[in-house]
Design brief:
Number of strands: 12
Domain Mannitol dehydrogenase C-terminal: 272-402
Pfam families: Mannitol_dh, Mannitol_dh_C
Strand content: 5-15%
CATH topology of the largest domain: Rossmann fold
Number of helices: 19
CATH architecture of the largest domain: 3-Layer(aba) Sandwich
Distance between the termini: 51 Å
Structural class: alpha/beta
Strand order of the largest sheet: 6-3-2-7-8
CATH class of the largest domain: Alpha Beta
Oligomer: single chain
Largest sheet: 5 strands, parallel
Domain Mannitol dehydrogenase N-terminal: 28-263
Keywords: Oxidoreductase
Bound molecules: D-mannonic acid
CATH superfamily of the largest domain: NAD(P)-binding Rossmann-like Domain
Protein name: Mannitol dehydrogenase family protein
Radius of gyration: 22 Å
Length: 468
C-alpha cells in the first residue's frame, strides 16, 4: 500500500504527522527544484509552521529536470516522509506542506499562471549552483539562460503579475552560493534588461531577493532505504527522504509580501546572513568537497569513512579551523572552533551513508565559493593554505576523467584542458586569468610550485587499480 491521505491510518503510530487541514489551504509558495534537499529542509520548516497555525502557505513544486519527482509525489497527493537518522536510531514524520508537483516539460504558460496567482507570495529555489547559469565572471550566461532556465519562466510570470496590478514576489534562493539573494537579484535583472526592460523598475521596487543560508545533509535516497522504510512504517513512500537530525536556516529579513512564521519553528530571521553563510560555505561545504575528492582518491565511498581516515582528517581539520575560519568575521555568539567540531561530528554520522560521489559532482560550480574565496583572502594576507591546495590537486586529478565519470557541466572542457596542457599547465588552464573556473583566486608562483609537487602524487592509487 502506498502513502496518501487515505492510507495515513495504516501507518504505525510512532510516525509523526501533520495535523492541519490541507484541503482548506491555498498555495503560497512556488518552489523550483523540488528534490530531496527541499523536501527535508524548506518544505519541512513550512510544514512545521503550518502545524503551528500558519495558513495558506502550501507549496507547488516545479521539477525542472526530471519527471521522476512528479511521479513520486503526485500519486501521493504531495505527501512524503522525512526520516532523521543518527547513531541513536531514527524517527519519521509525514510532511503535508507540498500540494503537488508540476513536471519538467514545456511549462511556460502554467508556471506563469501560478506565479501570477493572487495567493502566491514567494518563489523559492533549490536549483543547484549550475541552475543560475553564470559565466566564469559571474554575469548571466545568456546562451544558457535563454535555453530553458528559471529566468524565462520568472520573467513571464512577473510580467503577468505586473500587468494584473498585483504586488511583487519574494524570490528566495536556497542554494549554496555566496550572497545567493544578491546574485539572483542581479542575474534576474540582467535577464530582464535584455528581454523585458520595461519590467525592470517594477521588479526592483516590488520584488525582494533575501539572502539565505540553508543547512541539512540529505543523501540521495536509495531503493534499499525505501524498502527498509516500508518495512518499518507499514506503507510504501516513493518520495521518502533520509536526513540527519540537525538543520539550520538563516534568512535575511527582506520579504515582499509576508512569509510563514519559519522563525517560530527554528529558522533564524536576521539582518545580515553573511557570517553564517560564509562559515557554512567555506567550512562545511569546503570540508565536504575536500572529503569528496580526497576520500575517493583513498578508495572510500562515504563521508563517514573519509572523515575517519587518519590521513584525511587532519587536512580537513586544518582546512576548517585554520584556513577557512581565519577568513570569517564571526557574528556575536558564533564560535567557529565549536562549529568545526560540530561539523566533524555530523560528518561522522554512521547512519547517513552520504556518498562522496554525490558531493563530488559539479565541482567547477562549487569550488569558487567553497575554496577559492578562502585562498584569495589568505593569499592577500600573505598566508598559505596547504590543505585547500591539496584538496584542489585531488579535484584536478578527479576531473582528468580517466578513473570515473565526471559529473560536471564543464567535464568536457576540463578533460580537454588536461589533454592539451597536462600536469604542467593544468593549474593555469583551469584557474589562470582566463581559465575555465572564474576568480576570485589566481595561482601565485608559490601555489604553482606547491601544486607541481603534490599533483603527481594523486592518481597513484587509481593508476595502480587500472588495468595496464
Ligand atoms: C554538499 C551539500 O553535495 C554537496 O555539495 O556539500 O549538499 C551539503 O550536504 C549541504 O550543503 C549541507 O547543508
Amino acid at each position: 500500500m502506498r502513502l496518501s491521505p487515505a492510507s495515513l491510518d495504516k501507518l504505525i503510530p510512532e510516525v509523526a504527522r501533520y495535523a492541519y487541514d490541507r484541503d482548506a489551504q491555498s498555495v503560497g509558495i512556488v518552489h523550483f527544484g523540488i528534490g530531496a534537499f527541499h523536501r527535508a529542509h524548506q518544505a519541512w520548516y513550512t510544514d512545521a509552521a503550518l502545524n503551528a497555525g500558519d495558513r495558506n502557505w502550501l507549496i507547488t513544486g516545479i521539477s525542472l529536470r526530471s519527471r521522476a519527482v512528479a511521479c513520486q509525489l503526485n500519486p501521493q497527493s504531495g505527501l512524503y516522509s522525512v526520516t532523521e537518522r543518527s547513531g541513536n536510531g531514527e524517527r519519521t514524520r509525514i510532511v503535508g506542506s507540498v500540494r503537488n508537483v508540476m513536471p519538467a516539460g514545456s511549462m511556460k504558460v502554467p508556471v506563469a499562471r501560478l506565479l501570477a496567482a493572487d495567493s502566491t507570495r514567494i518563489a523559492s529555489f533549490t536549483i543547484t549552483e549550475k541552475g543560475y547559469c553564470r559565466s566564469a565572471d559571474g554575469s548571466l550566461d545568456f546562451a544558457l539562460a535563454d535555453s530553458g532556465s528559471i529566468y524565462r519562466l520568472l520573467a513571464h510570470g512577473l510580467r503577468q503579475r505586473c500587468d494584473a496590478g498585483l504586488g511583487g514576489l519574494t524570490l528566495l534562493s536556497c542554494d549554496n552560493l555566496s550572497e545567493n539573494g544578491r546574485q539572483l537579484e542581479q542575474l534576474m535583472g540582467q535577464y530582464l534588461r535584455r528581454h523585458d526592460p520595461d519590467l525592470v523598475p517594477w521588479f526592483e521596487n516590488e520584488c525582494a531577493c533575501p539572502t539565505s543560508m540553508v543547512d541539512r545533509i540529505v543523501p540521495a535516497t536509495t531503493n534499499q532505504d525505501r524498502i527498509r522504510l516500508t518495512s518499518t512504517i507499514g506503507i510504501l513512500d516513493e518520495a521518502a527522504v533520509m536526513t540527519e537530525p540537525f538543520s539550520q536556516w538563516v534568512i535575511e529579513d527582506r520579504f515582499a509580501a509576508g512569509r510563514p512564521t519559519w522563525d517560530a519553528v527554528g529558522a533564524q530571521i536576521v539582518a545580515d546572513v553573511a557570517p553564517y553563510e560564509t562559515a557554512k560555505l567555506r567550512m562545511l561545504n569546503g570540508a565536504h568537497s575536500a572529503l569528496a575528492y580526497l576520500g575517493l582518491e583513498h578508495g572510500h565511498d562515504y563521508v563517514h569513512q573519509a572523515v575517519g581516515d587518519r590521513e584525511i582528517r587532519p587536512l580537513v581539520e586544518r582546512l576548517m579551523r585554520e584556513e577557512a575560519a581565519s577568513t570569517i568575521s564571526a557574528a556575536p555568539g558564533q564560535d567557529l572552533d565549536t562549529y568545526a567540531s560540530s561539523l566533524l561530528e555530523r560528518f561522522a554520522n554512521p547512519a547517513l551513508n552520504h556518498r562522496l560521489i554525490q558531493i563530488a559532482m559539479d565541482g567547477s560550480q562549487k569550488i569558487p565559493q567553497r575554496w577559492l574565496e578562502t585562498l584569495a583572502v589568505r593569499g592577500a594576507a600573505g598566508a598559505d593554505s596547504p590543505a585547500i591546495l591539496t584538496a584542489l590537486c585531488a579535484w584536478l586529478r578527479h576531473v582528468r576523467g580517466d578513473v570515473r565519470k565526471v559529473d560536471d557541466p564543464l567535464a568536457g572542457e576540463l578533460a580537454g584542458a588536461w589533454s592539451t596542457h597536462g600536469e604542467v599547465g593544468i593549474i593555469d588552464a583551469v584557474f589562470g586569468e582566463s581559465g575555465l573556473v572564474g576568480g576570485p583566486w589566481w595561482p601565485t608562483q608559490d601555489d604553482r610550485v606547491f601544486v607541481a609537487k603534490v599533483l603527481p602524487a594523486f592518481g597513484q592509487v587509481q593508476d595502480q587499480l587500472r588495468p595496464a
